[in-house]
Amino acid sequence: MHAVELEDVHVHVGGQHIIRGVTLNVPCNSVYVLMGPSGSGKTTLLRVINRLIDMVDGARVSGHVRVLGIDALKADPYALRRRVGMVSQIPNPFPHMTIYDNVAVAARINGVARGKREEGEVVEWALKKAMIWDEVKDRLHEHPHVLSGGQKQRLCLARALAMKAKVLLFDEPTANIDPVNARKLEGAISSLKDDATVIMVTHSPHQAARVADRVALIYEGRVLEEGAAKEVFLNPKDEFTVKFMRGEI
Amino acid sequence: MPSAARHDKLLFFSLVPSAVTLLGMLAAVIVVVLNGSWRSIADFGLDLFSKSVWIPGAERYGLLGPLIGSITSSLIAVAVSLLLSLSFSIFASDILRGRARDLASSLVELMGGMPTVIYALWAAQYLAPALRDFLMAPLHGYLGFIPLFSEEPVTGYSVFTAGVAMGVATVPYVSFLMTEAYSILPSTYREACLGIGASRLETAKILLSLCRPALLASLLLGLARAMGETTIAAMTVGNSMKVTACIIASGYTVPALVASQFGDASLYVYSESALYAASLVILSAALALSFVGLSLLSRWRSRILV
Amino acid sequence: MSRARSLKDKLFVFAVAAGFLLAVAPLFHLAVVVFERGIPALVESGLGFFTDGPPSPLSTEVGGIAPAISGSLILLALSLPIVVLIALFASLLTLEFPGNPVSKAVDVAARSFASVPTIVVSMAVYSLVVVPAGRFSALAGAVALVMVSLPYAYTSFSTALRSIPSTYREAAYFIAMKRWTALIRVVIPMAKKQMASGVLMTMARIVGETAAIMFVVGRFRAGIQVLPDQPVDAIPLLIFDYALAPYPVFHKVAWGAALVLLLSYAAVFVATKMLVREVKL
Q: In chain A, N or C: fewer CB atoms in 10 Å?
């Protein structure tokens, strides 16, 4: 059973052909990593899955995208996004809401919790799952500017979790935070696959090796190599993959 | 792009009425001015712009004086604000630091939002006499043989006074534009200048040459603004239809003419239409100037920020 | 540095400093004379300056500017909500649908509108509203004021909204907020202080505007008038008319009114500065 299926996906923005025929299948309850050098189209691919690509002026998507059995390119993007959470590269908790509200708003908008008590439970659950509960439980009603960059990023994870989405997208979630926090976040991500399917973008082969069940190497809008993480890392078939893992590209 | 969601279309259509209102209002102004001026232009032809006469009782109209006054006074205004704004921008960006710089930019903002009628009152009662006693009278005394200064300044109200006063009032706007252009320059240029041991004068010269199109654009936008300025001109220009080469004699500008004559214009046949024709000229000029200025500015920006 | 070069540099700094001082000097001189000439008028009639009507030309009493104050307030009350609403919606439109031809047209129109001389707006509103209605009115004044302050409010709202990094709007979409919800719950709340300062500066512009209402409000000075379809007066118009009049007592009233206008403007300006300072913290 696949949570996300991409079949011959192309993306054009303006005159540029950014994604050039990508076919991928992401198994349920796994961590799937899209890796590759920057500018290869990984982030664009992620944005096709939750249709955030719609916000890009002049973007055209063709091919087939199925997310949890729904035709993602034809579905109402808002209905789609309820089932797909996302954490971006830059920690972006809403600065005008309290820590509690940052998480609660995701639950409220998507009808996850009914009533104040249930909402509180969801918030606590999400913060625990994002491994930040102990650090914020005494200051839930403060604003997120009191948190460090890494804590903010885990708060964003909690916000995504509170939607109870079945697919979670991570766009280089550790790119802008310190190594200690990055490890904590990786730990949290690995534990998510019991409830959801995780798709993560990274340009670091080391991070991919630490968290991935399956990986795909994307370069210039195409999939160069794809397979079980162990397989790809131990016996890379493509010469480019070898170079990428040595850090030569 | 995949089919846009229904909510997005709904949002779009709920915002469109505001757009229609805005576009409609601009269109309405332009249509009214065109429609209003048509009659006098058709009946008076070129005479309307080549003579200078305003005798509504005899239905005789010619707008040459106010048109020349508008051009002369706005050019003087821009010259004044060029000198002052350029100094302001260089001083505020290169010499002032920290809080002092913030204070300077607040001052300019404070001046920029000031009701122009206060400037007008100040200019009429303080600037005009001061200019007459300390600048216009000596100019006439020593250089009276030059046509520009041939008439004796009696009241102090003149095209020159109006120009200077409008210049003072447009300084904040032009300074704001210039300072923005000057500070938008990537800091690498400034560092490069310091790196080669350039003095402050040399640094300023290099940086200014980099933003020359933006400076020109600021001046064009300032010119557009000065051209439409009403209260200051009406209170300092002296209201005279005479056409003369002397800039220290009283004259008229189009907005000043409108301000003093439009109130009674409905009593006559062509008065209103002649005033519309006059404002059609400054409206077109202001729109054209600001269009050129804004496109210069945006082209310069996209080039410098790459 | 050689001596000639350093002398040249010093001269340059001196010249620039002098130009700077000359640029800001009018503000200080103007403030001083407005106080100097305005205070006597206010002292002479005391509170009456705010409650009485203006004097007759040969009167020895200064009287007051009550009709102008009430007129300015009515004009503000009629025009500000409309300007804010139209400007808000138009700026949301261009923010949300930047590639759309309607948005592009709005952007160009707003910028062109800013360069339309305000006296021309007054003439147009006279022909469009006053003539068909058969009378001068506060409503006609409000229409003119909406037109002249709209580009200003639109620009300040647009700048405020665009200052919110796109990553927060994306975060809103991540949790499946609809565009409208994202605007109401995220973008507008985040920009609200800057937008509030935009509203205040628009307010200052409306209250200080002279030329736009010159031919449309009717300069009703015989008493306090509160109906929107009746003629009114405004503080800047009163200053303009009275400064041009030949009577000394009118000049006195004009200076008093200028002081009132200057103080209200300064208060609004300080309020906007305080708002924006809080944003930076």
A: N
